[in-house]
Design a protein that fits this description.
- By secondary structure, this protein is an all-alpha fold.
- Helices cover 69% and strands 0% of the residues.
- It has 21 helices and no strands.
- It is globular.
- It starts with 19 loop residues before the first helix and ends with a helix.
């Protein structure tokens, strides 16, 4: 784009509708509006992460997940088709809100649906699809660079058209149903799963009957005289509230939960700030903008392979610590290489450290999507990850300032990111390791588990010949 000096007006060296900057004249006195749309999306993500997870814990994972997907799809189409910048900015805000509702519900639903030994596969597959999606953006944008930006936005939005079938293709989390006394619905889903997997239906339903007995006992102890049958065939009122309904305030009223929340909140903020700071700095690399974005996206693919082989071997906590340590070392080394940019080979070294840092911070970001919900009890799980993610959006809003800071003090962003990653690596050992343990259901279970398993000690490998140890893991 070529601009004449603003006092005498401006002209563009390309068609008016090619980019949203040229279409709405977001230059000179209107330049700040270009940043407003990005800021509104980050604010929307913070709002969505703060409020939608609470609805998910209260009303169910499915309703929030599917509704968020549909609204996200609709707002993407709206942003591509609506004629004014104001409408576009509003759609970006809605995209941010619903993106977080979808992401948080998806992360929690994945760990609740899968058994303990397979929970990591949800994040491995999610990380793979995320990286492939990022890699796809660059060639699609390159092919469509001579068309209006609206076509690119429309094509990327249409990828999620499958969300319109969500209410028929998704089932509710059985763990959430059981925790909230919705025994009949849980049995229906388990019968469907048993039929699909060709397993004995009665053996599966015995687990639900046991949960129903616990629910009845819990309600009787609370003085509830509603009649229910233990076998789950009759439930007055269709559901019982087995667990208390926690709120965001619960995150700070219990000491051990407050420690988890504070550490994970800071971890999300550092990850978001560093990840987006590095992503937004990709244009400064000595490469074509399409190629640099593609290579940075490609750097995230090895993360899935690393996670596949290490999640259950090293554990979530220690893998996250290693990722942060490597990110810190590469960012600090990259800062030194940038400072010595006039030396032979410094530019190549800078790019290598840049890519290692991006890989590491992407790995830690992927890990905490699995790690965080595993640290909270069932009816506080979405609130916990939502609050942490909301704090992470603050890091995302600060990330665009990394570029202007680098122009004034070239070594500052890398040094700040590196030091913050070191601090996270020092704090994470205070948390318990969830690998090899079932998800906590109540606050009391969580506190007992935290007391026994937090600290710097490594998790011991499970002994398959030790029945007592296996029973401890299952319960």
């Amino acid at each position: 784009m070529e601009l004449s000096p603003c006092p005498t007006g401006y002209t563009y060296g390309l068609q008016k509708d090619r980019t949203f900057v040229t279409e709405w004249d977001l230059v000179c006195e209107g330049a700040e509006r270009a940043e407003v749309s990005q800021m509104l999306m980050m604010i929307g993500q913070m709002v969505g992460a703060a409020f939608l997870p609470q609805l998910s814990d209260k009303y169910g994972r499915k309703i929030v997940l599917v509704t968020s997907q549909i609204v996200l799809f609709s707002s993407g189409i709206g942003a591509a088709l609506l004629p004014t910048f104001t409408c576009y900015a509003i759609m970006r805000f809605i995209c941010g809100v619903t993106h977080q509702g979808m992401a948080m519900a998806r992360a929690v639903m994945s760990v609740e649906i899968l058994p303990e030994e397979s929970r990591y596969m949800a994040e491995v597959l999610g990380c793979t699809v995320w990286a492939l999606g990022l890699c796809l953006i660059a060639p699609v944008a390159y092919v469509m660079q001579d068309l209006s930006w609206r076509y690119l936005y429309l094509v990327l939005s249409l990828i999620s058209i499958h969300s319109l079938l969500g209410f028929w293709t998704f089932d509710e989390s059985v763990r959430w149903l059981l925790a909230n006394g919705k025994i009949t619905e849980a049995k229906r889903i388990l019968r469907k799963a048993a039929k699909m997997n060709k397993v004995n239906e009665e053996e599966i339903l015995e687990v639900v009957d046991h949960a129903g007995a616990i629910a009845l006992k819990s309600k009787l102890l609370q003085g509830d005289n509603q009649t229910q049958s233990i076998n789950g065939k009759e439930l007055t009122g269709h559901s019982t509230d087995v667990l208390p309904k926690y709120t965001v305030w619960t995150l700070f009223t219990r000491r051990r939960i407050a420690i988890i929340t504070l550490i994970m909140t800071y971890t999300w903020l550092v990850n978001s700030l560093t990840y987006y700071g590095l992503s937004l700095s990709s244009a400064s690399l000595p490469l074509d903008r399409f190629l640099s974005f593609f290579l940075l996206s490609l750097a995230e693919l090895p993360v899935a392979l690393i996670e596949y082989f290490t999640f259950n071997r090293w554990g979530r906590k220690w893998l996250c610590i290693i990722f942060h340590a490597v990110a810190a070392l590469s960012l600090i080394a990259g800062t030194v290489a940038n400072y010595l940019s006039d030396k032979p080979g410094a530019e190549v070294a800078l790019m290598i450290f840049f890519f290692i840092g991006k890989l590491s911070i992407a790995g830690s970001f992927s890990t905490i999507f699995l790690f965080t919900p595993e640290l909270y009890p069932t009816n506080l799980r979405n609130v916990g990850i939502g609050f942490s993610s909301a704090a992470g959006r603050i890091g995302g809003m600060l990330a665009p300032f990394a570029g202007p800071l680098a122009e004034k003090v070239s070594w500052a962003p890398g040094a700040i990111f590196g030091v913050m990653c070191v601090s996270v690596a020092l704090l994470l050992p205070l948390l318990p390791e969830p690998t090899g343990h079932e998800l906590p259901t109540t606050v009391e279970e969580l506190e007992q588990w935290y007391k026994q398993h937090s600290g710097i000690k490594r998790r011991k490998p499970l002994n398959i010949n030790n029945t007592a140890e296996l029973n401890d893991v299952k319960h």
